[in-house]
Amino acid sequence: MLLLRRRIPLLAALLRSASASASSLLPNPKNVPYREGFLWSSCYFHGTGHHTSREGVPIDKELLDPLALIKDEVSEISNRMRSMVIAEIPELTLAAGYFFRAGVEGKRTCPTVLLLMASAISMDIANPSFGSQNELRERYMRVAEITELIHVSSLIHDDVLDDAKTRRGMDSLNCVMGKKLAVLAGDFLLFKAFSTAAVSLDNTEVVSLLAKAFSNLVTGEFMQMTITPAQRCSMDYYLQKTYYKTAALISNSCKAVAVLAGQTVEVATLAYQYGRHLGIAYQLIDDILDFTGTSASLGKGSLSDIHQGIVTAPILFAMEEYPQLHEIVEQGFDDPSNVDAALEYLARSKGIERTRLLAAEHAKLAADAIDGLPESNDEYVLISRQALKDLTQKLIKRTK
């Protein structure tokens, strides 16, 4: 990402199907307005377990599979992005589309969160300037596409900077096509993201939020590259870097959805806070899995952070129990014996457990932000809010 700092002003200036088929006896909701279509599709995830919303409305538990609620839209987004990354040069098309091929799109967490957030803050449109419900839904989908493009671009550039060999259980793009083409592919995805934002969103505040998120990504990478020994031992520094590198994109994109919806500053702030705490919780679990997972389950090398000299929450918590680890961390991990020593201290400490507790705290703060939204009796709003809350638990309980 450091390679892209000079491109931010240019990018800022530039600033939607494959789904599981329903029974042929069932009506086709494709041309039904979004709200009716959402509720139509929801009935096919009916189960016996129940949640109760804050407003006291019972919600069927099986309705709350986050991806199932918006799977048609996420699938359409995946298809559209495969079309968006076509370039004039065949090699660039192959490189830019590497992580958008069917079957290797990843978890698609960003589109899932953003589309659920859009549903969770939905309101009757009193101001015609915001457009119809279907027009708004299309714009929300555009934000989801743009966010995913920025996300994948950041992964590609991260892999170049880290000389990573694998990503999503396969060879990294830089290994397959070389670092230069990988950098250009990441740049091309950013161009597509911000040119799409400028043309399709027609909202300078939203474009500014997306540009800010990208700038934060660069800042976080720079913080990681220029870290001092003292900063390497600081939990505050680690959490700030984690926000920039992982949480800034989803938090600002959640806020962008609220801005597009014409929501109040208070609602936009709650949307932002949900994304911020969800992103931090996600990264904390990632940091645990780097120590406890396998390369096969992670889709990338385990222990990759510490071998790159990157100190994360589990080690920082272990330092509090074993002050002698402080000197090892300050020295760095170029010496394999320092890596071995740090892992020994971590195994004896409660670093993993305390990191998991911190992730749970951030997950709760994300859920609290959803509970803080204005009350609603609208079924699809309530279902979406519960799905967002359930997603916080799903992400912190993941094993890959």
From TrEMBL:
Cofactor(s) essential for the protein: Mg(2+)
Keywords in alphabetical order: Magnesium, Metal-binding, Signal, Transferase
TM annotation in the entry: none
Signal sequence interval, chain numbering: 1-22
Keyword Magnesium: yes
Similarity field: Belongs to the FPP/GGPP synthase family.
Name of the featured protein: Uncharacterized protein
